[in-house]
Predict the 3D structure of the following.
Amino acid sequence: MSTHETDHDHDPDLQARLRALPDQRMPPADGWARLAAQLPPRESAPVAVEHADNVVALPQRRRLRAWLPLGAALAASLAVYAVAPWRQAPLQAPAPSTLQLQAAAMTEQYQQAVASLPGARAAEWQPALHELDESAAQIRAALAQDPRAPHLLGQLKRTYTLRLELTRQAAQAAAAGLTT
């Protein structure tokens, strides 16, 4: 919608005046000369040089394009230098937390305890033993992600205790010749 209050399409006076305007208007003959006179002078206006056979040679452009590959090479070398691995200091792993040290000591004690038990391996006990080993590995991974979670240390201790007890029971059952 238009915001105009009058409708100019139906104004016969306006229509008549518009039709009375000339179809084409020619610019003044000296328009470009007057415009050029009003512009400030150029600092180094290129001059066309005429050669034999009526050939016009254009003035030489500045050699800005010669600097473009050099600038691109410089930018690329700076980018490589900024992300170069030899420039960056090696990342130091953070010192293990107290809980992580306790978990490592507990894991070492657990492995020693398992090694001291007889090596009887009954096939029916293996799925449960494997499940407890997987649980312990998952708890250690969670402790590596969140080294300040004391509940994970308690869960790891319970898992190792269950694994040791199950290993003892499997060894006693194998020694007695019992199967489940």
